[in-house]
């Protein structure tokens, strides 16, 4: 491949010089309110990256088959915990230093302490709504103390969404019960009609589905997931009733040009797809607004490189290993590093009725290169978001003595 024709260029170009001169920042341990951890070998390869950076994560249920019942959610949580224990055990004695996430390239005592702390990571489970979900399923979920939310995928909207909901209007009794039991509805907000332009699907979803849902269930707690448009940010600001949104690092840092820069770049392809610059700016404004309705959700969605570099590339960006550095880069470019802590560590917890963490983490201004590829199990590799680029911030990990 000729690098001047294809694959050249650096899409990460925050406008102008950073406004802050901070060299180190501290914030409460953040949480990730939208995360795909997958299963099996892939799960073992990705779970530690999140556990080292986040205290909790809302774990998406779009496995194959999807997580539709509480017993499946409980089993999945057990597999996540086992995978984390296995990943921690491996990280205690890495084969080479380069196998380690950068945050673990430190004194052995500190590394051991960080790994022990990572075991405290809490996967917060969700159920996948289908046409067959019943009000009794919702009661079971609310009673379980294990299920924190229910995810609505319009059928066919994204990766593993074929079992999703074909007609939201028919979900009345289920949504009624969720409203009554105060169980949040997490929405993948895109229509799926083939005749609607891919770039318009989120905005059309607001008009056709979300406005009606909001009005029909005024007390239902709704999170509009991974918003990508000015219209979505506007909807969330103005909606009545408990409404919030997660925002991903890729939608804060890139516009749709990133997908086409110097050749078709599948590693920038996710759903909802990146939009025009005007939308990126509206999202950045929302993220740094200080409004508690907007909070961090990476939508880190790992796929093997061979399935991304494919004639029908899978949708999803893998951002977990350097998620906080990406967010810090975006917030700093907006001159709002001081707003990062609330966005990353406070607002989401409050929306979910949980206390923010008292443990704290730090980040250092130190250029770090995003790896070109990472292991992904069974001979597969994965290309992370912004692979090969230099980020101005490096995650240093939890603050604390090696002895705790
Ligand atoms: C997600 C995935 O791969 O599971 N993909 C994505 O592009 N975001 C699904 C989703 O959240 O839409
Ligand atoms: Zn997602």
Record the SSE blueprint.
Layout: E1 24-28, E2 32-35, H1 40-53, E3 56-59, H2 70-92, H3 108-118, E4 122-128, H4 135-144, E5 147-152, H5 172-181, E6 185-187, H6 201-216, E7 222-224, H7 230-238, E8 243-247, H8 249-253, H9 257-260, H10 277-287, E9 294-296, H11 305-308, H12 323-333, H13 340-345, H14 347-351, E10 360-369, E11 374-377, E12 380-382, E13 390-398
Parallel strand pairs: 2-3, 3-4, 4-5, 5-6, 6-7, 7-8, 8-9
Antiparallel strand pairs: 1-10, 10-13, 11-12
CATH class: Alpha Beta
Number of E strands:
13
Named at the architecture level, the CATH assignment is Alpha-Beta Barrel
Domain unit count: 1
* Uncertain parts: 1-11
- What is the global morphology? globular
Q: CATH topology, which one?
A: TIM Barrel
Q: Catalogue the ligands.
A: N-carbamoyl-L-aspartate, zinc ion
Integer average pLDDT? 93
Q: Over the alpha carbons, how many angstroms does the gyration radius reach?
A: 20 Å
Number of helices: 14
What is the CATH superfamily?
A: Metal-dependent hydrolases
Instruction: Walk across the major sheet and give the strand order.
Output: 2-3-4-5-6-7-8-9
What does this structure look like?
With 404 residues, the protein is of the alpha/beta class. The protein has a single domain (30-398), classed as TIM Barrel (Alpha-Beta Barrel), CATH 3.20.20.140. Helices cover 34% and strands 16% of the residues. The protein has 14 helices and 13 strands. It has helices at residues 40-53, 70-92, 108-118, 135-144, 172-181, 201-216, 230-238, 249-253, 257-260, 277-287, 305-308, 323-333, 340-345, 347-351; strands at residues 24-28, 32-35, 56-59, 122-128, 147-152, 185-187, 222-224, 243-247, 294-296, 360-369, 374-377, 380-382, 390-398. Helix 1 (40-53) links the parallel strand 2 and strand 3 (56-59). Helix 2 (70-92) packs antiparallel against helix 3 (108-118). The longest helix is centred in the N-terminal third of the chain and has 23 residues, at 70-92. It is globular. The N and C termini lie far apart (50 Å). Zinc ion is lined by residues 34, 36, 60, 299, 301.
């Amino acid at each position: 491949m000729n690098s001047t024709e294809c694959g050249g260029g650096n899409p990460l170009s925050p406008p102008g010089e950073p406004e802050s001169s901070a060299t180190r920042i501290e914030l409460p341990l953040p949480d990730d309110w939208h995360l795909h951890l997958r299963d099996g070998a892939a799960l073992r390869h990705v779970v530690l990256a999140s556990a080292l950076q986040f205290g909790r994560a809302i774990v998406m249920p779009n496995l194959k088959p999807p997580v539709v019942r509480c017993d499946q959610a409980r089993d999945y949580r057990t597999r996540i915990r086992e995978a984390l224990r296995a990943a921690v055990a491996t990280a205690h004695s890495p084969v080479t230093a380069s196998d380690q996430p950068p945050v673990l390239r430190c004194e052995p005592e500190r590394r051991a302490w960080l790994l022990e702390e990572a075991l405290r990571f809490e996967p917060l489970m969700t159920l996948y709504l289908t046409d067959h979900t019943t009000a009794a399923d919702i009661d079971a979920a609310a009673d379980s103390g294990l299920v924190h939310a229910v995810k609505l995928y319009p059928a066919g909207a994204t990766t593993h969404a074929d079992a999703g909901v074909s007609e939201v209007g028919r979900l009345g009794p289920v949504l009624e019960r969720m409203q009554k039991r105060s169980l949040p509805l997490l929405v993948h907000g895109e229509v799926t009609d083939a005749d609607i332009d891919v770039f318009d699907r989120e905005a059309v979803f607001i008009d056709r589905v979300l406005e009606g849902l909001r009005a029909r269930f005024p007390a239902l707690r709704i999170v509009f997931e991974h918003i990508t448009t000015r219209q979505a940010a506007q909807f969330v600001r103005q909606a009545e009733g408990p409404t919030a949104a997660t925002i991903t690092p890729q939608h804060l840092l890139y516009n749709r040009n990133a997908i086409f820069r110097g050749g078709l770049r599948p590693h920038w392809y996710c759903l909802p797809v990146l939009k025009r610059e005007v939308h990126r700016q509206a999202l950045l404004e929302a993220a740094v607004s200080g409004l508690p309705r907007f909070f961090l959700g990476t939508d880190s969605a790992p796929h093997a490189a061979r399935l991304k570099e494919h004639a029908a590339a899978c949708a999803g960006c893998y951002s977990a290993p350097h998620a906080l550095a990406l967010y810090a880069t975006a917030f700093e470019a907006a001159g709002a590093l001081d707003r990062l802590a609330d966005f990353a560590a406070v607002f989401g917890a409050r929306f979910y009725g949980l206390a923010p963490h008292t443990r704290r983490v730090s980040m250092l201004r130190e250029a770090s290169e995003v790896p070109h590829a990472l292991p992904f199990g069974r001979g597969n590799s994965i290309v992370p978001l912004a692979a090969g680029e230099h980020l101005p911030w490096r995650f240093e990990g939890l603050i604390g003595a090696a002895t705790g």
